[in-house]
Amino acid sequence: MKANRETKRLFVGGLGQSISEVDLQNQFSRFGEVSDVEIITRKDDQGNPQKVFAYINIRVAESDLRKCMSVLNNTKWKGGTLQIQIAKESFLHRLAREREEAQANNEKSVMSNTNLLEKMGMMDFHMKAVPGTEVPGHKNWVVSKFGRILPVLHLKNQHKRKISFVFLKPRPLFCSLTYGNIKYDPSKYCHNLKKIGEDFTNAIPISNLTWELEGGNDPMSKKRQGKFADIFSPPKKIIKMQKNQSSSLSLTMRPRPSRVKMETPHFPQQQITQEMPSDPVTLKSPRVPDSERQKLKSVFFQTSGLENTGNKNSMSKNDIDSEDELMIAREENLERTTWSSINEYDSFEIVRDDFKSDVHKLCSLTDLGNKNNVSFDSEDNVGDDSDDDSGDADDTAVNKNVGKIKKSTEFSQMEKSVCKKSSPKNRKKCELSDHCTKVQKSKTNEELAISHGGKSLSNSSSSEDAASQSESAESEVGDYNAMMDNCLQVTLSLADLGHLAGSDLKAPKDPESHGWETTSQCDRASKSHGTSVGRHRSRQCIYPEEIVASLLEEENALGKQKPKENNLKLKFQAFRGVGCLYGKQPVRKSLEENIASSNVHKNEHSLKLEDPTSMSMEKGCPNRNGSSSKLTPFQGSKKADDPNCIQPQNRQFTCKTQNHKVRSPSGSEEGSRNPISNLLPLKDNAVRLGAETSGRGFDEDSGHETTKTGEDSEKSSDLTSHVVPEYSPEVSRMNTHGSKPDFPLSLNSPPDVSAKDKHAEDNQKRLSALEARQKAKEIQKKLVHNALANLDGPPEDKPTHIIFGSDSEIETEETSILEQSQLGEKPIKEFLSRASGILFGSSEEESDPEEDRNRFRIKPQFEGRAGQKLMNLQSRFGTDDRFRMDSRFLESDSEEEREEVNEKKTEKEELAAEKLKALNIVQSILQTNLSNSASKGSVAAKKFKDIIHYDPTRHDHANYEKKRDDKPKESKAKRKKKREEAEKLPTVSKEMYYNITTDLKEIFQTTKDNSEQKDVPHVDCEEEKAKEGHVSAAPVTGAEQPSGFTFSFFDSDTKDVKEETYAVEIVKSGKTAWHVAPRFQDSSSEEEDVTEETDDRKSSLGEVSLPAKETTRFFFFSNSDERLLGSDLFWRGMGSNISRNSWEARTNNLRMDCRKKHKDAKRRVKPK
Amino acid sequence: MRPLTEEETRVMFEKIAKYIGENLQLLVDRPDGTYCFRLHNDRVYYVSEKILKLAANISGDKLVSLGTCFGKFTKTHKFRLHITALDYLAPYAKYKVWIKPGAEQSFLYGNHVLKSGLGRITENTSQYQGVVVYSMADIPLGFGVAAKSTQDCRRVDPMAIVVFHQADIGEYVRHEETLT
């Protein structure tokens, strides 16, 4: 029994409060040994016991337990209902028991594993545990699946959530993150863990991990990478520029690359035009960029010229990196320039790219030997071509870049010239600013800089306008005028500059150059032509200056000539001084300034002087056309500007041989331009020389002939020798002209680019105006002529009026004269006048009826508008013969009136002309042919006609009937088929048909209209118009009949048809009959053919009609035979029905086939 | 009021030709009457001959508008198309863009058309080609300029601009005072 007994824990609920443990023990001891009794009392808030229950540990047998349960359960005991249940093991007991068990297990496992451990050696133990169980004795170590033991790490992350990193014992690293309080059991998730790497030693540092996805260069991938290149790149640039200490330079740098990029392609016009607006910086801050551009230009030139590899490298980078280097390079260049100015001989190689002034010097130096110049030219050419002479061979790309840059710079210069044109002030200002910057860098002339700065400030407002204008490349006449107004100011500023420069002149490092300058000035003053090399050089350097000076002088002459001469001289000095001080760049710029001013002057003068300039302009324009076919020279000023911008590029990129010629004439015509071109190292030396020569020659000839200069320039494009002789005379002229008022004119003739364009425009306008005037004159002449022609009649009559002899003549004359008065006045007056006019009234009665008739007829004199006016005039003077008016009095008026009439007429014409013009423009834009449009228009018109609703009752719709005629023509095919079929049929039937028809016709003719109505059904329903034709034709045929031949209805019918189709043509029946006769005899089959022909081609009607007549003649029956009356219906029906049916069937088949084929073809075409 | 100069005509035609190409001829050379362009207050009007005659009776300073305004010349003498020209240009448009209903409103408020709103586009549309913008119901909504060619449109991401806004019929409300 005892063996069966087990200690059980019983729950006893529903106890009374008074029950004690002893009671319980006693109560339960009946069933077994009660070892422990625990009474638990549950109390509410107030402490009142609510529940009392107890746990009893009892050692009891199963049966006893059951007995106990059954006896005591639900029994009332001491005030409570007992509820007895088996309770769970007490946790304490359980704990104890579990520990015991665990210990037992441990011992067991140890015992069992010892073997394994011994085998493995390495491992401490291996647990055969369910995954997830803790490793005993090790906190936070769990057994994972596959029996591996994993540590659990608890880490706190920023969000105060737990991150558990689980590291497997074996090397592989597992990283897994768990958030929140959830306990992460690595054993359950170990499958999710991934092996990152075997080696920690080789592990890449985090910084090197790939944080971006690598993609292509396409914008999408870039965006994914967080690069918004399009948006952000410009700001970056700006920032970098700002980094550069010379912000202005950097600013300029930025536009440049873009420009270069723009120009790298083949430089189509559009790009160039677009290019200007594409520079946002220039737009926003036009002033700085311009100046910068110039500087850059110079820098580039120098770098290219120097061919220093370092510089070139910097150039090659061509980007932000190179900016600093460029700065350095520029400084170097400055030094260089100074150095070059000192050592002019050394600068030979350098010069070519450096800039023009050097070239000039060299040219002057090599005046004696032309060869040197040539070689120089070749070098320049090479430079332009961006090929390496010195064999740097660093990068051809670099060189190209340089070349491009040069070009771009040149282009910019051209642009500047344009700007100058539009607003010379701005340009000047830019240049001034350049000067300022350079001065500051060289730190020699501070005063100048200050003065320039002030000027620039003053000019700043205008610069913006200039920029905008340059951007739009539109320089209007208004602007031009404005420029003109500004000219004076500009000159003044120049003068100031000159003063300043003069003051600074003493500072220059180059005494020699200074001396030369002074000497040159002296020479000028003394009008002695210096042949010495040095002098030449100086002159060349000064040359544009001289022009400017002359221009200035000229302008001064307009205002005050003499006082400013001094200023001018000072200016020269100043310019030269600047040049010496700052190397050739400054000189060049000063020259440019001069040019600008000269341009301005020229513009002014060009306006004043129409004829010579216009001639030159005309010449220039064709030349330009030759150079660039794209450019239409005679367009608006706007366009003209564009060409200017583009032209230089074109020249550069197009054949240089062309360039020479083109440029030289242009240069000659545009005096200012030549200097510019000269200054630009980019251009070929040869070209330059030519330009110079042309310019000089022009200067020479300008006084005499402008046109000649162009020719000269062309001739002397390559000749440097020309330069010398021309040069000296020019100088002399300059000197002479200083005092002369004529000189300005000559100088004016060389206009700058803008001037040229404007001149071209002006000239064109003038020419057109002249033409218009001539035309008007011609018209007037014509009018006069006409008027006189009208006059001729009456005046001739007048003399007759006095003659007494012939009554009739007098009568008519009289009446004509009198009628003038009659129309205006009363018959009485007329009578009086007549009486006065005619001495012998005997013939009056005879002529009266005629007179009366004529009286109300308007006289030829009074016909028309002019006549009316005349009449009015006449009425003013009454009937007095002495004041008889004739058209002579009206001449002027009549003209006016005619003009009025013309105007009225022209209103529509104008519209038409406008339309035409518009169409022309459209075609030019669309680049389609004129004829195209015309044809289109006509097509449209035709289409439109088609839409018109045809009303057969309307006569004016008769012209639309032509198309109806087409239908029978269309039926040609039908007819042919018909014919073919008919051929099968007995020919007789056809003959019969025709005969019958003829008879029918007769019937119609005899029976009047009713028969016609009868006839209508016979006629093809398609030919409704035929009806009308019949009606009209019937009488005609009737008339013909008597003339001779009997003739068939068919004949007349065909004729009718013809008349319908060609309303104009009237066919004579007799004629046709005569012709037809022979043909008809041939055969019946031919007859058919003929008839068909008649149907098919109406033109052959005559022939057709004849056979019918013949038939009538030849056959037994005359057309009037009564036996045949009414038979026509029968025959006709038969033949026509058969043929028609067959024809219809065929046509249908054909149509179907045709459609099919068409569809097939379409299908075939579509997939392609 | 005056006829356009050749230069103006050229500028204007060039602009219009961007949208309708050679169909421009049909505007100039109309079979149903004479139509011409007139400049008034820097605006270009497309006027029938008849109306032109009538308008000639009104002094220039009193004349507000005549015919249909096609656009205006800016101070820089560029031609800007007005939405009022839509009725004349839409039928002849060579390159069209249809926008989805969801993007319609955005466009009509003056915004560019994003690729997400692009419903359909004429093939072979080149970049910067003038296009007429239609709703999916084929109602012309305005003018635009293709920011991307048709091919590029396929590749570009959905938020990229496909058509630059030029003019839309919303301007009838928004710019009522300037549309004459």
UniProtKB/TrEMBL annotation, chain A:
<feature type="region of interest" description="Disordered">
    <location>
        <begin position="839"/>
        <end position="865"/>
    </location>
</feature>
<feature type="compositionally biased region" description="Polar residues">
    <location>
        <begin position="646"/>
        <end position="657"/>
    </location>
</feature>
<dbReference type="Pfam" id="PF00076">
    <property type="entry name" value="RRM_1"/>
</dbReference>
<feature type="compositionally biased region" description="Basic and acidic residues">
    <location>
        <begin position="950"/>
        <end position="971"/>
    </location>
</feature>
<dbReference type="InterPro" id="IPR035979">
    <property type="entry name" value="RBD_domain_sf"/>
</dbReference>
<feature type="compositionally biased region" description="Basic and acidic residues">
    <location>
        <begin position="601"/>
        <end position="611"/>
    </location>
</feature>
<feature type="domain" description="RRM">
    <location>
        <begin position="8"/>
        <end position="89"/>
    </location>
</feature>
<feature type="compositionally biased region" description="Acidic residues">
    <location>
        <begin position="377"/>
        <end position="395"/>
    </location>
</feature>
<feature type="region of interest" description="Disordered">
    <location>
        <begin position="1078"/>
        <end position="1103"/>
    </location>
</feature>
<feature type="region of interest" description="Disordered">
    <location>
        <begin position="888"/>
        <end position="909"/>
    </location>
</feature>
<feature type="compositionally biased region" description="Low complexity">
    <location>
        <begin position="456"/>
        <end position="472"/>
    </location>
</feature>
<protein>
    <recommendedName>
        <fullName>Nucleolar protein 8</fullName>
    </recommendedName>
</protein>
<dbReference type="InterPro" id="IPR034138">
    <property type="entry name" value="NOP8_RRM"/>
</dbReference>
<feature type="region of interest" description="Disordered">
    <location>
        <begin position="243"/>
        <end position="271"/>
    </location>
</feature>
<dbReference type="InterPro" id="IPR012677">
    <property type="entry name" value="Nucleotide-bd_a/b_plait_sf"/>
</dbReference>
<keyword id="KW-0694">RNA-binding</keyword>
<dbReference type="GO" id="GO:1902570">
    <property type="term" value="P:protein localization to nucleolus"/>
</dbReference>
<feature type="compositionally biased region" description="Basic and acidic residues">
    <location>
        <begin position="754"/>
        <end position="765"/>
    </location>
</feature>
<dbReference type="InterPro" id="IPR000504">
    <property type="entry name" value="RRM_dom"/>
</dbReference>
<feature type="region of interest" description="Disordered">
    <location>
        <begin position="413"/>
        <end position="476"/>
    </location>
</feature>
<keyword id="KW-0597">Phosphoprotein</keyword>
<dbReference type="GO" id="GO:0005730">
    <property type="term" value="C:nucleolus"/>
</dbReference>
TrEMBL record, chain B:
<dbReference type="InterPro" id="IPR015947">
    <property type="entry name" value="PUA-like_sf"/>
</dbReference>
<comment type="subunit">
    <text>Interacts with pre-ribosome complex.</text>
</comment>
<protein>
    <recommendedName>
        <fullName>60S ribosome subunit biogenesis protein NIP7 homolog</fullName>
    </recommendedName>
</protein>
<dbReference type="InterPro" id="IPR036974">
    <property type="entry name" value="PUA_sf"/>
</dbReference>
<dbReference type="GO" id="GO:0003723">
    <property type="term" value="F:RNA binding"/>
</dbReference>
<keyword id="KW-0690">Ribosome biogenesis</keyword>
<dbReference type="GO" id="GO:0042255">
    <property type="term" value="P:ribosome assembly"/>
</dbReference>
<dbReference type="InterPro" id="IPR040598">
    <property type="entry name" value="NIP7_N"/>
</dbReference>
<comment type="similarity">
    <text>Belongs to the NIP7 family.</text>
</comment>
<keyword id="KW-0539">Nucleus</keyword>
<keyword id="KW-0694">RNA-binding</keyword>
<feature type="domain" description="PUA">
    <location>
        <begin position="95"/>
        <end position="170"/>
    </location>
</feature>
<comment type="function">
    <text>Required for proper 34S pre-rRNA processing and 60S ribosome subunit assembly.</text>
</comment>
<dbReference type="GO" id="GO:0005730">
    <property type="term" value="C:nucleolus"/>
</dbReference>
<dbReference type="Pfam" id="PF17833">
    <property type="entry name" value="pre-PUA_NIP7"/>
</dbReference>
<dbReference type="InterPro" id="IPR055359">
    <property type="entry name" value="Nip7_N_euk"/>
</dbReference>
<dbReference type="InterPro" id="IPR016686">
    <property type="entry name" value="Ribosomal_synth_fac_NIP7"/>
</dbReference>
<dbReference type="Pfam" id="PF03657">
    <property type="entry name" value="UPF0113"/>
</dbReference>
<dbReference type="InterPro" id="IPR002478">
    <property type="entry name" value="PUA"/>
</dbReference>
<dbReference type="InterPro" id="IPR005155">
    <property type="entry name" value="UPF0113_PUA"/>
</dbReference>
